[in-house]
Amino acid sequence: MRNGAQPVLEVTNLKTIFRTRGGEVHAVNSVSFDLKPGELLGVVGESGSGKSVTMMSLIGLLPSPPAEVREGSVMFDGLDLLKCTPAQLRAVRGPGVGFIFQDPMTSLNPVFTVGYQLREPLMKHMGMTKAQAQIRAQELLELVGIPDAGRRLKDFPHQFSGGMRQRVMIAIALACDPKVLIADEPTTALDVTIQAQILELVKDLRQKLGMAIVWITHDLGVIAGIADRIMVMYGGQIVEHGTVKEVFAKPRHPYTRALLQTVPSVRGERAEKLNVIEGQPPILRAAPTACPFRDRCSLRFAACDAGNPARYDVGPGHDAACFWDFDTDAPRREVTEKADV
């Protein structure tokens, strides 16, 4: 789904580093993407690939120090969020951008009731009285499928199950009707039944509210069922991007192909063992000057060590950052021509 509307979020050349005792870690490297109203963008990759750090960089959620957003722009509603004051960012969080964190047990405050934590953003950002916020908080719990919502507002987070806590987190993120919702692996710790319920809930809310969603996950099966576009990250950068249909049918980066080969077939078509991607994502002590995936790639050749490939178009709305041409099963022609010069 790529409508003709202007992007609600536009990220350009984002770079984020962490200062550590061992030196700088370049966690996000020149990330650029946009998001249209009503669109769902799936962001996938292993742990350590830069997914969560990228999204938390957008709205100033990383602790500084050690984090530092060194370069780039994040345009939202005419504002460059990277240039906003802390007060401006607080005004954007909630009514502008909602965020669902990975672990609801550590994200919810254990000493306040769920009702208090739902009322707080409504009173601060929406100007509601306590009584109005109480009514709206009950409506939000009902919206996310929590039974006996009026009574549960008085309960504390530990009195909810994992799935119900995640629903509370979604309710808090939706409280101020955000234009953009960022969901950071919200179903990772849940069993498959609850996960399916949360996914159906997000689909329904997206349809009802028309918000744009960024869904961060390592689960390609989830992305296949809910996303319009997919953004594959590795080494703090985007290595492939396109529509879900295009990327799943014609992956054009070795890392994307490797991820897809690790997904089990629900039809039981593959009797052999699942593929494993050997090795670990890199810890980048400097901005990458070579392909970050080269040490784990079976297609590695000289160009991979000599430079970091830029994203290039491989199809309609589909781009990849690789020196290999999967159509010819050989190095890209422009790469070999450059080597011959």
TrEMBL record:
Highest taxon in the source lineage: Bacteria
Subcellular location as annotated: Cell inner membrane
UniProt keyword NAD present: no
Main location: membrane
Keyword Transport annotated: yes
Matches recorded under InterPro entries: AAA+_ATPase, ABC_Ni/Peptide_Import, ABC_transporter-like_ATP-bd, ABC_transporter-like_CS, Oligopep_ABC_C, P-loop_NTPase
One of the GO biological process terms: peptide transport
Entry keywords, A to Z: ATP-binding, Cell membrane, Membrane, Nucleotide-binding, Transport
UniProt-listed Pfam families: ABC_tran, oligo_HPY
Single Gene Ontology MF annotation: ATP hydrolysis activity
One cellular component (GO) term of this entry: plasma membrane
Residue span, ABC transporter domain: 12-260
Membrane topology label: Peripheral membrane protein
Family according to the record: Belongs to the ABC transporter superfamily.
NCBIfam families (alphabetical): oligo_HPY (TIGR01727)
PANTHER family xrefs: DIPEPTIDE TRANSPORT ATP-BINDING PROTEIN DPPD, OLIGOPEPTIDE TRANSPORT ATP-BINDING PROTEIN APPD
Protein name: ABC transporter ATP-binding protein
Origin species: Rhodobacter capsulatus
Species classification: Bacteria, Pseudomonadati, Pseudomonadota, Alphaproteobacteria, Rhodobacterales
